[in-house]
Amino acid sequence: MEIDIDLLRNELKKIPAAKKAGAADTKTIAKTASITIPTSQLAVMGQEVWSLIIKFPEVYGAARPHLKKEYFEEEALVSLYETAESFYTKDNQFDLAAIRHYFHKEDLENAVDVLLLRPYKNFTDINAVEAKQEILSLTNRLRDEWRKKRGKELERAISQAEKAGDKIQLEALVREMQTL
Q: At what angle do helices 75-86 and 96-105 cross, to 10 degrees?
């Protein structure tokens, strides 16, 4: 069996480089994901949070400690969250222009522009002070809704682990439920 070394090298170059454990591939996610019509309360709140942050970028600093990527159901919002985190400056500034530029430069669907066009909540009737209060309220409701959803998922998983007799899995699930 003969192997063409040059062909093999070319094929190996096409394989993407390994990423750090847990690192998200935001480019792939953003290219394949798009902002959709929300189908759950959690999805609606996720879009509202980002719509408000986009309208009032200065509130991101207040919202940031209360946000986790797990809170967002849509891959496009997860990608937006990860991109926002990577563009959050040392001066605690949310650089909306840099995020927009990044999406346009990488030829990705611009979640920022899509969310700005959403008609159901455009936050035109509030000012920056009210926006800060609203973002804190929204992030708290988002967290509570996520906890409720995650709690239900854990209850189902605990029930399945009990039926299967998997004590190790059961202990892990119960611990997660307690820390929720």
A: 120
How far is the CA of 39 from the CAs of 9, 44, 95, 117, 146, in angstroms? 46, 7, 29, 18, 14
Q: For residue 94, list its beta bridge partners.
A: 88
Q: What are phi and psi of 143, to 5 degrees?
A: -60, -45
11: left (phi over 0), alpha (psi -120 to 50) or beta: alpha
DSSP run (H or E) holding 167: helix 167-179
Residue linked to tokens 């820390």 = 179
**Three-class SS state of 118:** coil
pLDDT tens across 13-63, in order? 666 654 444 444 445 444 445 677 777 888 889 988 988 888 888 899 899
pLDDT tens across 87-106, in order? 887 777 778 888 888 887 77
Nearest to 85 by CA among 63, 108, 55: 63
Token pair of 92, please? Answer: 């605690």
Cα–Cα distance for residue pair 82/30, rounded to 1 Å:
11
